[in-house]
């Protein structure tokens, strides 16, 4: 019975992982479709998705389409890579590798002007070329996608490193745009990444991380134990809550409500209060979950003991009858 329950739980988990990966793929493809319509209709708000923000370049949009297909055709925990996903990932490596080679050598392969060359009138010396940071992130994604079926230790380590580096950089870019800090989204020339590109990159790496739920940062989030409960209760709150507090502090300080020293003190105080509340809530829920698990275990042991006693009682009754016959 226990083995049947474990198999049912594993099957349910695999179905959920496949569903989440598919959802990530459709989000990426949906964003790329909106940007594509923006370029076809020449509508700036659709090109950037976020009105007034830096817009996504055509070659970046096309690469997101390939990445979405690589996710959509993938199967988490499958040992057999599919042709479409592998081909899409290989094309991503080719496009982004050539892009980085253009930056390094100064040679122009013209891949940034294949789509909508008549609309590429953006300011800059390389108006349509994909950002170097975006190219690196796409290479990380494609590498993780191609490495996901392999169970070799080296392949798994590389998968964990690149599937963590990509969303980390995208998260920093999102913070840079939110706080108006160019150093975080444009640290060097030709490395600027737009807000919608950063957000879509985050979704992309969540999807590829689900291909290997047994390794990397996604393992802690999906864990069924107390540690997993704690991470799920705290990670999202910290990743979103602290930047929100910092943004509110920046806006209030810019508006002249207080000076910089007061702002830093208030930021530290609110962070402490916020983190204590998050940790306390996570601990409280962890205790409740542990209590429920203990009660379930005791109930299972009682049921097993009751079944054993009944079996012995039936045996005591049947054995004399069997002996007489």
Short summary of the structure?
The protein has about 325 residues and is mostly helical.
Annotate the secondary structure layout.
Blueprint: H1 2-41, H2 44-48, H3 58-72, H4 83-105, H5 132-147, H6 153-179, H7 182-185, H8 195-209, H9 217-222, H10 226-254, H11 260-324
Order of helices and strands: HHHHHHHHHHH
How far is the N terminus from the C terminus? 34 Å
Specify the oligomeric state.
single chain
Q: Please, what is the average pLDDT?
A: 82
Roughly what percent helix?
A: over 70%
Strand content: under 5%
- Which structural class do the helices and strands define? mainly alpha
Main sheet overview = none
β-strand number: 0
Question: Which shape, going by the Cα principal axes?
Answer: globular
Radius of gyration: 26 Å
Structural domain tally:
2
Count the helices. How many? 11
Give the low-confidence spans: 1-7
């Amino acid at each position: 019975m226990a083995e049947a329950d474990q198999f049912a739980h594993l099957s349910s988990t695999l179905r959920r992982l496949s569903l989440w990966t598919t959802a990530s793929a459709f989000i990426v493809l949906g964003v790329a479709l909106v940007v594509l319509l923006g370029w076809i209709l020449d509508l700036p708000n659709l090109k950037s998705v976020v009105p007034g923000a830096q817009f996504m370049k055509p070659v970046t949009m096309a690469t997101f389409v390939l990445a979405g297909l690589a996710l959509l055709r993938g199967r988490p925990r499958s040992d057999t890579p599919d042709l479409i996903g592998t081909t899409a990932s290989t094309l991503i490596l080719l496009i982004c590798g050539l892009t980085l080679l253009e930056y390094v050598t100064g040679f122009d392969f013209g891949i940034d002007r294949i789509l909508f060359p008549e609309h590429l009138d953006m300011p800059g010396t390389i108006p349509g070329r994909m950002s170097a940071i975006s190219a690196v992130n796409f290479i990380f994604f494609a590498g993780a996608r191609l490495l996901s079926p392999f169970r070799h230790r080296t392949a798994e380590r590389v998968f964990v490193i690149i599937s963590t580096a990509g969303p980390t950089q995208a998260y920093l870019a999102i913070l840079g745009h939110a706080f108006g800090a160019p150093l975080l989204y444009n640290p060097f020339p030709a490395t600027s990444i737009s807000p919608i590109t950063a957000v879509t990159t985050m979704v992309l790496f969540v999807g590829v991380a689900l291909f290997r739920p047994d390794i990397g940062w996604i393992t802690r989030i999906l864990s069924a134990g107390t540690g997993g409960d704690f991470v799920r209760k705290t990670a999202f709150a910290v990743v979103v809550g602290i930047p929100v507090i910092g943004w509110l502090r920046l806006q209030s300080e810019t508006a002249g409500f207080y000076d910089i020293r007061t702002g830093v003190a208030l930021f530290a105080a609110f962070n402490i209060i916020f983190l204590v509340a998050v940790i306390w809530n996570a601990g409280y829920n962890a205790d409740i979950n542990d209590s429920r698990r203990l009660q379930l275990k005791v109930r299972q042991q009682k049921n097993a003991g009751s079944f054993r006693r009944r079996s012995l009682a039936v045996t005591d009754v049947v054995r004399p009858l069997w002996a007489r016959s």
